[in-house]
Task: inverse folding
């Protein structure tokens, strides 16, 4: 191949379909991608370094911003790690409230992804339809937590406020199945959509495991790995992890749509339980100035974009000695090197979109 | 035209104005007025699209400027005219400035080839339909020049895509046009329109016998206009608007306006070829029933123009509907679709039309 005939294209960081500030350095032959080099870090805020300078309670509001679309999950992770260290047992109602919030957040995140993915493919309308439903969830979040996105609702040992009204979610859950049917009508039966996603961006299980891919992307490649099955919050709930073996962008899309109804199933069960546990008991944690015992603590959770985990090394101070995050998108970005090679530019956008990359989570 | 001319001269003679004045103004004044009217229609078309897209996606669409947002496009156009004309570093200045003009001029030329009413066509040649297809193909040149001279890789990719796309979709258009020409035995758009006269109204038009041709022509027109699902050359989420990425201010406005004018012109063209053009869809005109005498006879021309524009807006409505629903096609599927599906089917359609014509014994209907 003649060097001079290659086109070096700088996709991003200001590009409409890189979902934030991802920069991809592509080498193109015509429209065929010969190599792809992701360049991350445009949204680096020093989330991990900041933790070393702040006490735990000061750091808590920040962690929502690690993934602004799924803030509850990171809140929950930090709380969980601290609670593990302090050996706090959560009361039943707190657990249920947290499950409801997490799953609502997952639905909101997946809804946004469906819209954004279709937008990448060039369809405008589904974006507005999914945002319409997402709005109901965000309105509810605002009602309960006072914020639409950066909720800061979970606190060490409990939640900031009791879940006083569940009518909105019940209503939402009752309309969701018909809305999902609507999405399927406009998206799944669309021949162009199928043509553009079926057999595009094949992610075989070995590559996925070696690349550290988790979450929906892994499950859409046929591997049954859902942390919720072993998570103590979800212990008493009846649900089946969505595992599809299409390995392509289409099954990644399908898996997320199916996960919407699976999550709503969990919320329905949680709402039932919430009626039985009416007493909110917060664990007694002195909010300011508490210290974690010396040692290393780790906890993980199934976030919408894959396995997320938090590691804290404490030296018995008010601040963590070291704090590390593991986020799903970081590994998906790295996967782009392999998965985009040999594809064409407009398929590449669809494939990168199907991995559900969100940049604040990558750059932290 | 003669009838109107006669009335006009008579009217001038009544007021003692020399005939030479009438001879000149008879052509200049109405052409100017109608051209401005057409451009206003195009401006409304932009609003029409935005409103419809809004309604399709459960929004209200533009509703702030003027009543129901009627002046929104005017305000947008005015804003674009006032904006700074940025010429990026390293562009080929001559070609860069030329491209929007090449986009805009053919769009105006093709508008003049359409018979708006039985007495009114700006340029009535024997081969109107052919000239239309030639001029409607011109904008690729502009997109090629614009993409090439912009010194931007995205623009270059966009114009590359556009050329392969338009080359692929020109042939099906030509073959389905040939089908219509065979049916009508004429290349003149007015005669094609008149051939569709029947008591069946809209159901006697060419879209019934030539339905395959209509579909193919419609799809190919979408591709030629870079409309969704064939909007690859200006794929917003991939190429950031492709060939017009680097254009701003009035140059961008010319591109934008040219595109919409072409959309309108192509919708007019399709309605002339397949939906009976200015003929009433009910088989007979309404105005003579409502107004007696001379006034009704003049009003009939307006009614004809109204029907034509209504039909073209129906086609545009479908185009917008498609945009609201479909994602973009993949580049290679798009080319494959044209060469392996549309082209053979359009040739088959031509054969079908020839056989039909033979069975009809030379006369349609």
Result:
């Amino acid at each position: 191949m003649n060097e001079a005939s290659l086109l070096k294209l700088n996709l991003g960081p200001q590009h409409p379909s890189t979902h934030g500030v991802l920069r991809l350095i592509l080498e193109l032959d015509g429209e065929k991608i010969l190599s792809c080099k992701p360049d991350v870090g445009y949204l680096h805020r020093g989330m991990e370094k900041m933790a070393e300078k702040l006490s735990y309670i000061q750091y808590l509001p920040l962690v929502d911003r690690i993934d602004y679309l799924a803030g509850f999950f990171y809140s929950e992770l930090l709380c969980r790690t601290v609670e593990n260290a302090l050996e706090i047992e959560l009361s039943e109602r707190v657990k249920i409230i947290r499950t409801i919030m997490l799953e609502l957040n997952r639905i909101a995140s997946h809804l946004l992804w469906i819209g954004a993915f279709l937008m990448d493919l060039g369809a405008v309308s589904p974006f507005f339809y999914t945002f319409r439903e997402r709005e109901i969830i965000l309105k509810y979040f605002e009602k309960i937590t006072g914020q639409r996105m950066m909720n800061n609702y979970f606190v060490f040992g409990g939640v900031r406020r009791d879940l006083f009204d569940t009518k909105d979610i019940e209503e939402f859950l009752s309309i969701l199945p018909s809305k999902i049917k609507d999405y399927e009508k406009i998206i799944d039966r669309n021949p162009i959509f199928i043509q553009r996603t079926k057999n595009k961006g094949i992610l075989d299980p070995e590559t996925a495991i070696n690349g550290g891919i988790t979450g929906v992307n892994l499950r859409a490649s046929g591997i049954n790995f859902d942390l919720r099955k072993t998570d103590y919050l979800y212990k008493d709930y009846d649900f089946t992890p969505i595992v599809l073996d299409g390995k392509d962008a289409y099954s990644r899309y399908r898996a997320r749509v199916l996960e919407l109804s699976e999550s709503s199933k969990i919320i329905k069960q949680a709402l039932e339980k919430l009626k039985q546990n009416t007493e909110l008991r917060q664990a007694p944690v002195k909010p300011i100035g508490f210290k974690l015992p010396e040692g290393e603590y780790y906890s993980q959770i199934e976030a919408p974009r894959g396995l997320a985990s938090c590691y804290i090394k404490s030296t018995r101070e008010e601040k963590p000695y070291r704090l590390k995050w593991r986020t799903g998108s970081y590994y998906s970005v790295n996967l782009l090197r392999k998965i985009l090679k040999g594809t064409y530019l407009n398929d590449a956008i669809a494939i990168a979109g199907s991995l559900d990359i969100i940049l604040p989570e990558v750059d932290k | 035209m003669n009838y109107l001319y006669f009335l006009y001269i008579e009217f001038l003679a009544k007021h003692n104005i020399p005939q030479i004045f009438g001879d000149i103004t008879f052509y200049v004044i109405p052409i100017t007025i109608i051209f401005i009217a057409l451009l206003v229609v195009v401006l409304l078309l932009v609003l029409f699209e935005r409103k419809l897209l809004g309604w399709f996606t459960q929004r209200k669409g533009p509703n702030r400027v003027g009543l129901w947002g009627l002046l929104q496009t005017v305000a947008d156009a005015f804003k674009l005219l006032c904006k700074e004309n940025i010429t990026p570093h390293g562009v080929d200045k001559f070609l860069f400035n030329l491209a929007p003009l090449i986009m805009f001029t053919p769009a105006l030329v093709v508008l003049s080839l359409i018979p708006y009413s039985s007495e009114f066509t700006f340029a009535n040649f024997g081969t109107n339909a052919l000239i239309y297809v030639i001029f409607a193909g011109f904008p690729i040149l502009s997109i090629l020049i614009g993409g090439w001279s912009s010194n931007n890789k995205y623009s270059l990719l966009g114009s590359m895509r556009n050329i392969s796309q338009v080359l692929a979709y020109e042939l099906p258009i030509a073959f389905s046009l040939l089908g219509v020409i065979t049916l009508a035995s004429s290349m003149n758009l007015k005669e094609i329109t008149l051939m569709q006269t029947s008591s069946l109204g809209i159901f006697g038009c060419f879209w019934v016998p030539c339905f395959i041709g209509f579909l193919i022509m419609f799809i190919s027109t979408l591709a030629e206009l870079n409309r969704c699902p064939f909007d690859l050359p200006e794929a917003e989420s991939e190429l950031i608007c492709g060939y017009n990425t680097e254009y701003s201010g009035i140059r961008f406005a010319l591109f934008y306006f040219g595109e919409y004018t072409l959309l309108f012109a192509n919708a007019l063209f399709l309605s002339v070829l397949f939906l009976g053009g200015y003929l009433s869809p009910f088989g007979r005109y309404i105005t003579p029933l409502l107004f007696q005498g001379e006034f009704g006879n003049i009003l009939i021309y307006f009614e004809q123009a109204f029907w034509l524009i209504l039909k073209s807006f129906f086609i545009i409505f479908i185009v917008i509907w498609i945009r609201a629903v479909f994602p973009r096609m993949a580049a290679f599927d798009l080319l494959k679709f044209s060469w392996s599906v549309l082209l053979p089917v359009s040739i088959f359609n031509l054969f079908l039309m020839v056989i039909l014509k033979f069975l009809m014994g030379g006369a349609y209907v």
The two ends of chain B are 27 Å apart (CA to CA). The mean pLDDT of chain B is 82.
